[in-house]
Design brief:
mainly alpha, 580 residues, 30 helices, five-stranded antiparallel beta sheet
Length: 580
C-alpha cells in the first residue's frame, strides 16, 4: 500500500489522469480479473509467469475495489454465479460447468476479501478453488476444512450447515453417496433429452438444478435451531450424585487429570444443555481454564482449544459454543489476570501467545483488556503484534492512552505509523498528562505526523514544562515548520533563561524568513549580555540577512567593544549576502 501523502490539502488530479473508479466499475474489474485467473489455471502450471501475472491483476483489481468502496469485497456464491454488490461477476450457462459448484455444494454462501488481503493469500485461495473444481483436493479434506486449516487472516467464508462427512464412519460415507446420487438424479431429470426434439436438452433455467438440491439438503440454519430447550436438566442433581461424579472424574484415566476431563465434559454438556443452564456451565469452564492456566498447563489448554475448534468446524451448530467458551479467556477478569501474570514470567510468554493465537478472532476482540493488564513492555509488544496480525482493532488505546508509559512507546510506534487512521492515537499521546511521555512522542514524530498535528506542536512551544518546549523546538527545526516562527518570536518577549533564549534564537536562524530576520536584528540591538549579543550575531550570520550589515559593522568597528563580540560580528559579516 503506498504511503499517504504528507500534505494535508487535497490535490487535484493531474490533467489527463483517469477519473476515480465507481464501485460498479471496480466490481466489473474484479469479475474480469477473476474469470481470467480461474481460466488461466486450466492452461498454466502453478508458478508460470502468465499465471502469476493474472494473479497479480486480480489482486490489483480487488485492491482498487477496496479503495473505491472502503468495504470488503463480498463475493456472493450462487449455484452457478458469483455476485459482487449488484454486479454478476461470473455466470455459467450450465450448472455442471459452474466454477462455483464445489463451493456451493459445501454450503459456502459468501467469500469475504477483507481490506489488507495479501497477494500470497489470494494465490493460495485461488489455487484451492481450482483444485476443488478439478476434484484434486486431498482425500481427507473438502474445500471448507482445507480453508480452515490454511488459517487465512483476511479471507473469510460464510457457510450454511451441510451434511458432515468427516469422522462419521459408514453412515457418513453412505450419506455422502446418497447425496451424490441425488445430485446426479436431479441433473438427469432437469436435462434429459426430449423425445422428439432432435436430441436437444430440455430448456430449463440453469440455476434450477442446484436450487432444488439446495432446498433439499442445504437449508440454512436459523437462530431458532440453535436454542436447545428439549434436553434434560442437570440443575437438580443431588449432592450424592455430584460427589459420585467428582470421584469418577478424579480417577486417572489415560494420563489425563481432572481439569482436562472436566473441561471436555463441559464442552459436551454445552452441546445439549438448555439456554438457562449455559451461564452455570460457563462459570464452571472459567474455573477449569483458570486452574489450567495457573498451573502452566499450556500444552493441555492449546490441545483443548484446537479440539473444540475442530468440533465446531465439523458441526455448524457448535460455533456459538466455541465463541462463548473461548471468550472467557479475555473477557473474565480472573482468567485474564492469570494469563497476564503468566505472560510476564520468564519463558512463558511464547506459550501464552501461542494459546491466544489459536483462539477465534471473535474471542480476541477483548484483547486490549489483557494488554492493559500487562506490565512488561515485551509482553505488551508481543500481544499487540498478535492482535494486529489477527485484524483486531486497537481503538481502545486512544481512550486509555493516559495509562501508557514512556517505555511503551517502542511498541506503540508501529501502530502510530500504520496510516492516517492512527492519528487519534498520536493526538492522545501528545496530550498525555506525563511531560516525559509528551516529549518522547515528539522525538519520534515524522514529517507526515508533524503536518497532521501542527497546531498541537505550536502550542507545545509554549508549554509550561521546559523539556516539552525543548522537544517541540527541536522537532519544528528538524522538519522546517515555518509556521513556528511567529510563536518563537513571541517567546523572545517572555522571561527565558540564557540557554533557552539561545536555542530560540538559533531556531529562528534555521527556520529563516523576514519575521525571523527582524526578530534577530531587534534582539541584537537590545541585548546587553555580551555572550547573548555575540550569539545573536552568529545567528544573523547563519540566516544571512543583508539588512543587518550596518548593525554588525557598527559593533565590529567599536574600539572598546569586547573582543569576542567583535569577532562574532566579523564572522557574521563574512556570511552575509553581498549588498545589492
Amino acid at each position: 500500500m503506498p504511503a499517504p501523502s504528507s500534505q494535508s490539502r487535497v490535490v487535484a488530479p493531474a490533467p489527463g489522469a483517469p477519473p476515480p473508479l465507481s464501485p460498479e466499475d471496480a466490481a466489473t474489474e474484479v469479475g474480469h480479473a477473476l474469470s481470467k485467473v480461474l481460466n488461466a489455471y486450466r492452461f498454466y502450471a502453478e508458478g508460470h509467469a502468465s499465471l502469476v501475472d493474472f494473479q497479480q491483476k486480480f489482486f490489483e483489481s480487488v485492491t482498487r475495489y477496496h479503495g473505491a468502496t472502503g468495504q470488503p469485497a463480498v463475493l456472493h456464491v450462487r449455484s452457478s454465479a458469483v455476485v459482487l454488490g449488484e454486479a454478476v461477476l461470473l455466470e455459467a450457462t450450465s450448472a455442471k460447468d459452474s466454477v462455483t459448484r464445489p463451493l456451493f455444494l459445501e454450503g459456502v454462501q459468501e467469500v469475504l476479501l477483507q481490506p489488507g488481503v495479501t497477494l500470497d493469500e489470494l494465490r493460495d485461495f485461488l489455487g484451492m478453488w481450482h483444485r476443488a473444481l478439478q476434484r484434486t483436493l486431498p482425500p481427507e479434506h473438502d474445500f471448507y476444512t482445507l480453508f480452515w486449516e490454511r488459517g487465512f487472516e483476511d479471507i473469510e467464508l460464510v457457510v450454511a450447515e451441510v451434511p458432515s462427512t468427516q469422522e462419521g464412519g459408514p453412515d457418513s460415507a453412505r450419506d455422502e453417496a446418497l447425496l451424490a446420487e441425488r445430485e446426479e438424479q436431479l441433473f438427469s431429470e432437469l436435462t434429459r433429452r426430449q423425445a422428439g426434439g432432435g436430441g436437444r436438452r430440455r430448456p430449463v433455467g440453469h440455476d434450477e438444478w442446484l436450487a432444488r438440491l439446495e432446498a433439499e439438503v442445504l437449508a440454512p440454519v436459523s437462530a431458532q435451531d440453535l436454542v436447545r430447550t428439549g434436553a434434560p436438566a442437570f440443575a437438580g442433581t443431588t449432592e450424592a450424585e455430584v460427589a459420585e461424579l467428582r470421584a469418577a472424574l478424579e480417577r486417572e484415566r489415560g494420563g489425563d487429570g481432572v481439569l482436562e476431563r472436566s473441561l471436555r465434559m463441559v464442552w459436551e454438556l454445552l452441546a445439549v444443555c438448555r439456554e438457562e443452564e449455559r451461564p452455570e456451565l460457563l462459570g464452571w469452564a472459567e474455573e477449569l481454564l483458570t486452574g489450567l492456566a495457573a498451573q502452566g498447563r499450556w500444552a493441555e489448554l492449546l490441545q483443548a482449544v484446537r479440539e473444540m475448534t475442530r468440533d465446531a468446524r465439523a458441526s455448524g451448530t457448535r460455533a456459538p459454543d466455541l465463541y462463548a467458551l473461548t471468550r472467557l479467556f479475555l473477557q473474565r477478569e480472573g482468567l485474564r489476570l492469570t494469563l497476564a501474570s503468566a505472560a510476564e514470567r520468564s519463558g512463558e510468554l511464547s506459550r501464552v501467545m501461542e494459546l491466544l493465537n489459536a483462539l477465534p478472532r471473535d474471542a480476541l476482540l477483548a484483547g486490549p483488556e489483557l494488554l492493559f493488564a500487562l506490565e512488561v513492555p515485551a509482553a505488551r509488544a508481543a500481544l499487540v503484534k498478535l492482535l494486529v496480525s489477527r485484524g483486531v482493532a486497537l481503538g481502545a488505546l486512544v481512550s486509555r492512552a493516559a495509562s501508557l508509559r514512556e517505555v511503551d512507546l517502542e511498541w506503540v510506534q508501529p501502530l502510530r505509523e500504520s496510516g492516517p487512521e492512527a492519528q487519534p492515537l498520536t493526538a492522545a499521546l501528545l496530550a498525555h498528562p506525563t511531560p516525559g511521555v509528551r516529549a518522547a512522542v515528539m522525538s519520534r514524530l515524522g514529517l507526515r505526523e508533524v503536518e497532521a498535528h501542527k497546531s498541537v506542536l505550536l502550542k507545545a512551544l509554549s508549554d509550561a514544562v521546559p523539556s516539552v518546549r525543548g522537544a517541540a523546538l527541536a522537532l519544528v527545526v528538524r522538519h522546517g515548520v515555518e509556521a513556528a516562527v511567529g510563536t518563537l518570536v513571541s517567546r523572545l518577549d517572555t522571561a527565558l533563561d540564557a540557554k533557552e533564549r539561545m536555542a530560540v534564537l538559533r531556531a529562528l536562524a534555521d527556520l529563516g524568513g523576514p519575521a525571523a530576520a527582524a526578530a534577530l536584528r531587534a534582539s541584537f540591538e537590545r541585548e546587553q549580555d555580551t555572550e547573548l549579543k555575540a550569539h545573536c550575531a552568529r545567528c544573523i550570520g547563519v540566516l544571512g540577512d543583508p539588512r543587518a550589515r550596518p548593525l554588525l559593522e557598527a559593533v565590529a568597528q567599536k574600539l572598546f567593544a569586547p573582543r569576542a563580540l567583535r569577532q562574532a560580528c566579523r564572522e557574521a559579516l563574512a556570511q552575509l549576502a553581498p549588498v545589492g
